[in-house]
Write a structure and sequence with these properties.
There is one protein chain. By secondary structure, the chain is mainly α. It is built from four helices and no strands.
Length: 87
């Protein structure tokens, strides 16, 4: 029993690895079909250009900053109003 407790992590790692290996062997055909279908679907994707990606990232950052300022201002205002009414 002491052996099991002292080597618990190793035993769990071995059991998990063996289970995953058996599942991989059992479902190899299905996994191969799935991955080939993923490859086909990814070839259909219209990928953004670098400039489009940079522009979209900039928009996300600006909107996030604006929302942060708005939420911070509303929080401060509500905190002041709550303190005024509590006192």
């Amino acid at each position: 029993m002491e052996f099991l407790i002292s080597n618990f992590k190793v035993i769990i790692l071995i059991v998990t690895s063996l289970t995953l290996a058996l599942l991989l062997i059992k479902h190899y055909g299905k996994i191969k079909i799935f991955l080939s279908q993923v490859k086909v679907e990814l070839s259909k994707v219209s990928w953004s250009t670098r400039q489009e990606l940079i522009g979209a990232t900039g928009v996300v950052i600006v909107i996030t900053l604006l929302l942060t300022v708005c939420i911070g201002a509303m929080d401060s205002l509500l905190s002041v109003l709550l303190n005024y009414f509590i006192r």
